[in-house]
Amino acid sequence: MSDVAVVFTTFNPGRPFLQTVREALRGHPVIVVDDGSSRGAEVLDEAAGLGAVVVRQPENGGIGAALNAGVRVALDGGSRFVVTFDQDSAPERETIDALRDTYERLAAAGEEVAAVVPGRFAAVRQAISSAESPDARRVIQSGMLIPRETFATIGEFDESLFIDLVDTDFELRILGRGHRIVAAPTRIGHELGQTVRLRPFDRLPFTITTMASTPFRYYYRLRNRITLTRRYFRQEPLRMARDLLVDLVYFGVILMCARPRRAMGAVLGRGLRDGLRGRGGRIPSELARRATTIRWSSVAN
């Protein structure tokens, strides 16, 4: 059996996920960590029947906690590498081999490689040059191959971030240690979210086409952006300042296009306040309930 364990995190998984598990099991041990789903129990049961190790979190603890649970199972089982995927990622059969081969080739040459990611993630290019083994930046954790040694030196994923920018924090910790994240010549498919045409002003025909998330996610996105800016500004001042500015403009657009705006203002305001105070964990329950009242002022594509 391969020394690369495949870890999938799931939340309310659908039946198409089972085909992804079947493909991964053909060459690797598979660990599925379900993050407190309210639906999809039969899918998880079938995944276990196929041969995957299924870990069911007792409650929704966030992507960081789910990833760490899977990584621990993999490492305790003797795996040398872990490659992490979301449930809606679609790795090709050769993807994991390409990630591992890239790591082994560079490690044999004495390179300090802490992780390897696909060169392309859906339509996103993760490599920053066209070299044979280019460095990767702004990486996504889905499809990331991580050797055991990286967890020993860098630590686990930050569970306090809960969701959003968990992979960015992990990347910045790696770069802060002077290690490389390398892009391999492979790609994975992935759902990146919904593109919508938003209308910031109800009485004007002006629209903005952008990606829109579920409203409660903007609490985490703003809170964690503030957290990471404070945490890594001295290490990466230009990147932190640029990313913060871009996100603030985007949050302004989201606020203008949310209905009611007052509810979205509350979500963003609490995210800002908690980020400045260093608060982590789950969104406050009363704020999560209020976020369910938010709708987008949009037009059909």
- Outline type: globular
| Helical percentage | 40-55%
Q: Strand content of the residues, in percent?
A: 15-25%
Report the structural category. alpha/beta
What CATH calls the topology of the largest domain is: Spore Coat Polysaccharide Biosynthesis Protein SpsA, Chain A
Q: Mean of residue pLDDT? A: 94
Order of helices and strands: EHEHEHEEHEEEHHEEEHHEHHEE
Strand arrangement in the largest pleated sheet: 3-2-1-4-8
CATH class placement of the largest domain: Alpha Beta
N- to C-terminal distance: 48 Å
The CATH H-level homologous superfamily of the largest domain: Spore Coat Polysaccharide Biosynthesis Protein SpsA, Chain A
Question: What tags apply to this protein structure?
Answer:
301 residues; alpha/beta; Spore Coat Polysaccharide Biosynthesis Protein SpsA, Chain A; 2 domains; five-stranded mixed sheet; four-stranded mixed sheet; 14 strands; 22% strand; globular
